[in-house]
Amino acid sequence: MLIQILAIWGCMPELNQDCVDMTNASSTYLSIVIGVIVGLAISWWIYHAQKKTSEKQDEVQRRLQVLAESHEKMLESIEVFQKHHEKILKEILSLDEKIDSIIEKRAKND
């Protein structure tokens, strides 16, 4: 069946023993087969390269997510630390005012 379909396009010595020389049709078929093989090889190479790039991008995004979470935790810790320092500073200033008022009272009494 395939040979009969190809026979419409011309004599192909690769398929028919009665042909002497390679015809335009057989050179076209051979070129198509070579083109398909080269096309498949290039397509596979591009697919493989894009897959590797995609995997690397996913890994980088995962690492960035981990860094972002770590950064967020660090900022929260700094915020808690800063609030604690503000509270201590207010208490120190309050004590300073109390000490100043005690010193002023003693200075007035003396």
Characterise this structure.
This protein is an all-alpha fold and 110 residues long. The chain has two helices and no strands. It is rod-shaped. The N and C termini lie far apart (127 Å). The model has no long low-confidence stretch (mean pLDDT 85).
Give a brief outline of the structure.
This protein is about 85% helix and about 0% strand. The chain is an all-alpha fold and about 110 residues long.
What's the shape? rod-shaped
Structural class: mainly alpha
Range of strand content:
under 5%
Radius of gyration: 43 Å
| Average pLDDT reading | 85
The counted number of beta strands is 0
State the assembly state of the protein chains. Answer: single chain
Keywords:
mainly alpha, rod-shaped, single chain, 110 residues, 2 helices
Topology:
Blueprint: H1 2-9, H2 24-109
